[in-house]
Protein 1
Amino acid sequence: MRYSKFPKGLIILLFTSLVIGGGIYYVKHRHLLYQGDFDTVRLALPKTEATAMPRIALHKNFFRKHGIKIELSQQDLSKYSFQQVLNGNADLAAVEESPIIHQAFKGTDFVILSIIHTATRNVKLLAKKSNGITTLTELRGKKIGVVEETSAEFFLFEILRHLDMSFNDVQIVYGSNEELETKFRSNEIEAVCLREPHIHLLNHEINPDNSFISHGKDNYLTVVNLVGSKEYVTKNPEIVKRFLNALKDAENEILENKERVIGVVADELNLEKDYLYDSCVGAVCQLSLTERLLMELESEANWLINQKGYSDRTMPDFEKYFAIDILESVKPDSTRDLR
């Protein structure tokens, strides 16, 4: 049997081309390849589409590009993700404004590194029309479930305020997501106010003709932030900056490839793309620290002082928690309206 052979000269030419091509690629892209030792960062994320930025950074290996290995833990609510940092079980976490405010009142040491997501459809109220709720005005006197010390609680207050009502005009039922969902299914409560995607998933169980859902006419902004313990950030500023650089790469990816990003987040969280397109209307994924965040924090803190038994406490200085210099070193002008 005879075997055909490639000419020896052709093999040498192909090999040489590969070596030269690889060398050229390395020279052109070596600034993108991290040259130092890898550092492990323990990251806690709530299971929500508002964590798209770090999820894309993981999916696209942007953290590895900047010399970081991620140990990921996931929680149902951002307050639980924040608790992982406070308990020393995580270095960084994604968290909404409400848990931040409550911890600031307690004098807890932590650092707000950046906003990573803002949206007006992250929190919703769900009710059944069969329970007598076909408009928001019919909430009066009804039992409404909400998780305490979350953005959903303040969202509910804002809805009622716009209706010239207060918590005294309804029956507030506190509990965990799971407890409230169970009570809603059994009609122990007539409405429930929760963070997405919990409302979306619960709404799937209701006949569409019997469902009443509201996101407050897009007048309530939720802000998801990257936070860390003050001790960790103080001891590891360069690691934190590399982490933020990975998120900056993810920010660009989100801006350039929205369709692909929605597909990744949908797969990771087992959500439908159509739902994500709706929930992401008006959503912004950009690294920043803004005066708007400061105003949101102070507004909710005022509510706690005036309505929720915090009258003996003074307004926290929220800006002192902002890591302005660290964020500006990674993304100049991202804090310009605070200067």
Protein 2
Amino acid sequence: MSPIPTPGVMPLDRDAWKQELNLSNFTNAYYQLRDVKRLPGVKRLLVVGPGQGLDTVVFKWRGYDVTTFDIDDTFGPDVLGSVHDLGRFGDRSFDVVIASHVLEHLPLAYLDAALGEIARVSRYALVYLPVAGRHMQLRVIPGFRYLDLSVVMDVFNYFATPDGVTKPFCSGQHYWEVGRPGFSVRRVRHRLEKQFEVLDAYRNRDWTPSYNFVLRSV
């Protein structure tokens, strides 16, 4: 039996990745700000996995109190550690915890503990997750205000299974993704509902590899 991997840093060239800034970073930051603004009484944020730091800059620009948290000191987090253990923070220390394209880097053995910790330290959470495979989108914007129609089709090898020790899904070491066996949207939602009330769940039509959950801790 293969040993259970422990949470660790991504195997890719993190220094080079830290310098990258793509359209997806701006799209992701916009949706995070939009979703946070929809929640009442939010001031204190914990950003897990700050990456290149664009999200943090945007939130601070809008007046939020932001703490960053990461297992990798490459990204200069305020606090260093793994999201499955937030013991340095007290209950409800934050209004919102944001984990955007972070939890898939966590071995499955630690996933439920991480969700429990996020629910413990915050009133709300944004959990954005990658969708497996390649994505084809048909989008129609007829020119009428607020009317934007989008249909997305995902194409991937459903029979590919993760081996988090020797065969991660990609160089970024995804142990799981939405759409992989056992991780349909319905099953992911069911897992989240053990710790949260799902306020909203949607496919990001401007960044199709992302499925976004807006959550309230229970």
Protein 3
Amino acid sequence: MSFPEWLIEHGVVVHQHNPEWRNKLETMRRALVDNHTMDSHLYASSGNFFGTFQRIDIPEFLSVEYCILLDADTIVVRPFTLADFGTHMPEGLAFSSDMKENDDKPQNAGVALLNVPYLRKRLGEFRTFVFNHTDGNFKRGPGDQGAFLDFYGGNIKYLSTRFNTKPHYKNNTNWDNAYIIHYQGLKPNDQIEYWFGGTCDPLKCSLMSKFHGSPHKCDAMVKFAKAASIETVIKTFCSQSLKQHSDLCVDLLDRMAHDEGGNLTGQRTCTKYLKGVILSKGLNPDDFPNIDENATRLLNATHLLPY
């Protein structure tokens, strides 16, 4: 079954989107590649780059006042309604914090609350602004995120981090009341590949080192496992996202998904799950040094490159 078929089977309305501006976007991406502006992995793929910019046309497909946009690397962990956003809905749109949890600046577009009529009214003007930047460089960030921040500026309000909680965030109260977890930068398969395979590309290694010791890192992995289990996609996820050790990945996520212990905020560690998987397969834990969460410190000496 293809991914679009899976979405439709689960009640998702899928829109065909083939905008006339796609060739202009590819010209922009090629300029970024040619100028060695590669501070985002999305520039390496025309499909991924196009995928990030598709969101600018949301107003053409929805007839609602407000909607919430979620990147594909997010999961909803608690139900919410418009009332949970408070009484001050944005006139334009709202973003949450980016890498820094407490800066209270609207920067990250991975989760966005959108005023659809407002964005529809300015869509033509926004498209012109975006594609006039033929070099692909925006002042306040890369890609579509930078375009939104540059164009809409003061009309982008702040969205609580409870709607855009990153695995490296530390605020216990926000974690206990999070609605959406956003696996920004490091995806679950990146961490699993490092644990079992001992490898990671320089950017991912730098993020692992930067956020080593984050108290909710394993909580975020367990929440992903539970979500994947509910949707019965653990086996598919592991087989398609890991080059090897997919069997270990399946066992790990299954254990996490069905473990009801360790529910205290920030008290769950992944080492016990990892060792359990290794031992159940009759393997030697010493052959997998990275399953010890303290081993991440070695990244500073063996893998880390500037981020």
